[in-house]
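The aim of this short unit is practical: by the end, you should be able to scan a pair of folded records and say something sensible about each. We start with the first protein, listed as its amino acid sequence and then its structure tokens.
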Amino acid sequence: SENSIKTYERALIKFSRYLKFYGFTEKNFEVDSLIYYLSAHYKSRRSILTALSAIRQYLLFKGLRVRRFKVTVDDDFKEFKRIDENVFKALETEISRIRKDQLKFGLKLMVYLGLKASQISRLRKFSFKFLNDVPVIEEGNIKRILLKRDFFEEVQEFLKGISLEEPIFVGSYGSLKVTSSRVFRKFGLNLSDFRDNYVLELLKRGLPTDIVVEYSGVPLDRVSYIYRVCFLKSKVDIVEGKLADF
């Protein structure tokens, strides 16, 4: 398609600039430095793979032997998945079919706050408190702000029947892991996707990145990446725009 041709053309222009910048040739360049260079221009793993595909096809067209590029991207550059409100509603319906109230509640803590099963198993009733008038969870290094009012009301109702001494999730957290994995898989999601979307909700409310890191448990690099994907352009576009007169 015309869009594909334009996408490949932009990738080859970047490849040409990369070779010129590092002093490499089409026959002799470093794949790792190429991927690092492209990561400054593209906002997702998929777009990097598309660019590499264009470059590889070009080199093959030139008659050069090229092995398939191996891209190993850690979780900090895992492509961000924005979860639609309709998906959250469908998830709520799916969770409502589960019989055990504790499992339901545990799943909602995962969906709305991005908490791990192991973290949920450590929570106590006194973990839920207020920061001034804002409801939060604080248990050791686990910190979350309860953003949804209706969910906070569910939390209050759930905690009424739990004493201060007992954990809020009684039983094996293994069952929570198994159930959550089964439910999330139906929607093509995993726990890290919910953590990412929780980060997005904090950013949408204008919280600075250091507070987002503190109350999400997500590393600064990942928070910055999500902010860039959802609110800004690529790093290179930002720098070039700000320093156009340099």
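Turning to the second protein, read its sequence before its tokens, just as you did above.
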Amino acid sequence: MRILIADDHRLVSQGIEQFIADSGAGEVVGVAYTIKEIKEQFSALQPDVLLLDVAFPDGDGIDAIPELRKLCKSTRIVMLTMYGEPNVVRRAMEQKADGFVLKGNGKEELIEALKAIGEGEKYLSKEAKELLGKNEEMTATLSPREREILKLIADGKTTTEIADSLYLAFETVHSYTKICVRNWVQSTPPP
């Protein structure tokens, strides 16, 4: 497999590159440290796999996925990040990432992910599956209307914008917002 590593931390990128070389899991054909470099190398190299972090100085890796898909539809995209939060995993999966591995999982997990991806499968680390489950537990307790409003809130819409777009009164949306927050608090286990 031809692999492009995209991580803004040079030391981390070099470590991943060395590990892949030592393991024989694939050939690293490039390393990118910014979203701009990712796009340039992605087009030029057409890698089989992109190991993609979330945070870059010039943007968000997850937000870049749709544009990257347009540049090369056949490349498999695996999120490799330290951001172990339900909304990060959910966003990555919504943008059609092929895999999700947390950096804290270790080298063996990365090799397992690369093997699965190489065989055409999707791959979610155990922790990523658990994080998605927490997100699903939260939304499972909400009604369809509550989920719709919660999604609009997550998209950055104001209460007034939500009310206007759903043809609801401001007070109705405000009440739904309180219900969403209350249900979320009740469904989230204490730390």
